[in-house]
Amino acid sequence: MADYFLGIDLGGTKILTAVADEEGNILAKIKLPTEEHKGKDKVIDNIIVSINKVLNKVNFNYEDIVRMGVGIPGPLNIEEGLVYQAPNLGWENVPISEILEEKTGIPVNLENDANAAALGEKWFGAGQGIDNLLYITISTGIGGGIIIDRKIYHGANDGAGEIGHMVIEPNGPLCGCGNYGCLEALASGTAISRMGKEAVEKHQNTIISELSNGNLDSIDGGIIAKAAKMGDEAAKEIWVKAGHYLGIGLANLLNIFNPEMIILGGGIMKAGDLIMEPMQKSLKKYSFENAFNSVQIRQAVLGDEVGVKGAIAVAIGRR
Ligand SMILES: [Zn+2]
Fold first, then answer.
1. Which helix (H) or strand (E) holds 146?
2. How close is the Cα of 184 to the center of ligand 1, in Å?
3. Rounded mean pLDDT of 99-123?
4. Is pLDDT of 200 > 70?
5. Cα 218 from chain centre
6. Distance 172 CA to ligand 1 centre (A)
7. pTM above 0.90, yes or no
8. Checking CA distances to 196, which of 49, 123, 178, 204 falls within 20 to 30 Å?
9. Hey, what domains does the chain have and what are their CATH numbers?
10. What residues contact residue 149 under an 8 Å CB cut-off, 6+ apart?
11. What is the 164 CA–ligand 1 centroid distance (Å)?
12. Do 41 and 102 touch, CB atoms closer than 8 A?
């Protein structure tokens, strides 16, 4: 009989659980709400329910599963299976691997969600066959994973890969981490929304306000991309700025890691050329020619499944 694995992508709003074979082919999957507001025990119950439901779909029992991989947002201790802190879940010092193993008898491999996503793209997405790559996801925040010789680089205590908190402009805007001028504070979805609001508040000649029906809080990357595509100069300028900073961040990474590929994912990449063109320009300007010429820049291909496919890779032991 073949070996089967579970992948669990535990997010702040939803839990995606899938059962897969040893090649990573998904046999069944299910999506449940996380219900983090109901507390840790309820979230753990929901994980177990999602496991039971997905196994039911293929008539499997816990005994049929070799191992589960779990991707979780926040700093972890992978060795001990411990979540130090997951602000999206309201968790602190939760021994999640032990809890899930106790309830199911299935061994658990834990991984940070951005690293898991990097592994998903490496093994099952845009990075197949590539040994050295960087994966960067740009949505509300900016996260990433560093893959060297086909393995995640974890660092001294699983803290590596915080690409979003590379300082680009020490006098720049405040970042969620408490620092100033991090890449995340300059080029993330949150940063782009902030620049959109500022453009409206400064009474710049822009249609961003109109497109948001005057509701400043609804201004997001989608609205600003729409405005830019309609020829709005203030909106275009926002994408040029974000792309410029992203290019500087990527140039730093290129010069340090000399990767074969950089994979860009996350909702903000839907803006396409609006951000890619200025990014390419500053990437070329600030990186060494050798590193620039040898890197492929690719868009992520797995979409919403990236986390769960990565969790499957983690379960199989590809990490
Ligand atoms: Zn930061």
1. strand 142-148
2. 6
3. 97
4. yes
5. 22
6. 11
7. yes
8. 178
9. 4-120+305-316 (3.30.420.40), 129-301 (3.30.420.40)
10. 131, 132
11. 6
12. no
